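User: Study the shape:
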Amino acid sequence: MALQIIRNNIVNVEADAIVNTANPAVGVGRGVDQAIYEAAGWDRLLEARERIGDIAPGEAAWTPAFGLHARYIIHTVGPAWMGGGSGERETVACCYRRSLELAAELGCESAAFPLIATGTYGFPKDEALRIAMSEISGFLLSNEMEVLLVVYDKESFEVSGKLFSDIQSFIDDSETAYVPDYLQYNRADDLQYKGTGDLQYNRADASDVRAKKTSRTRRILDGFRERKNALKREEEPIPQSGAPFGDRDAESGAYDDLLLSESMEQPAFEADAAPSYSRSFSAPSAPSFPSQEASLETRLKHLDKTFQEYLFMLIDRRGLSDTDVYKKANIDRKHFSKIRSNAGYKPSKKTALALAIALELNLDETKDLIGRAGLALSPSIMFDRIIEYCIETCNYNIYEINCILFKYDQPTLGA
């Protein structure tokens, strides 16, 4: 089915199989092992564990789950971290691989894992996470199962510091990324060198610069507005007594459009310079519009493709199978079948973006696809900025993206 990352105590999770990081010899260890024994029932579980005997590192065996919200406990033995030169990484990978295979053999539809060997055994958390994601995602490419990666606390979940530094910078940059040109000001005017040589931001100077440039823009626009009104007075006929002035709203709108376009074309003025007007103006005639009713009917007859239609058109163009797409999107088969069969399907935002990631769409293509479902990306929402960062850096690994989202306490994509 799909992979989810959740924050919980693994003994409280409901799944067909709960994976335990066990002692190699019969006996109760610390951490996850001890918590599972206490929740399942110490005596019965220990008795079942004695029938198994010793378990070699990297191997797995099962017992009934007894008092847990599960059918089975899968016991696997991780390695003690010795610096990485003694095959520790390969052993952890075997723990995930063998546990997943055993869960499939038992007919499990769901399995819950901790981050194996990261507790008392001291395996580095970032490496354990990378191995877990690699093994679980590889398994899910050819198997249908819901896999839960259960993280007890935020400190147990680590991802590359360099990656998070890059993402944080990208999110911080959003403060200036969407400022319209006519509101921009010269940031060099806002910066001031201090005695230490560091470049410091002077908020008082910045405020003064913005005030000056806003005032200059207003003077320019006021000048054009005065000229416009003068032209209208010269060209409008004097109405007869009782006669209406005509459709002044339409003319006013046309003049406003001309005013705005002219103001954007003017060269930059000095702060104290008075604007000059050498261009001659002529009042444009009011445009004729079709009736609103006819225009609406025409538009409604030419609707573009729906989200569902456009999605499957993209899938066909890329030569992908349904299985390729829903697995890369971290969506289960039943959910994808619903999308395929329902022409009016309206996805959630995280599902729509998961499908865009699976198709490896660029940012404009992603906005086009989700826009057909009435969705959008906002520069003021952290979830959206993280997705934008991943797309712009061509990171289409949905499991890695979900690790990033989870670290920032954001909803994950797909499942």
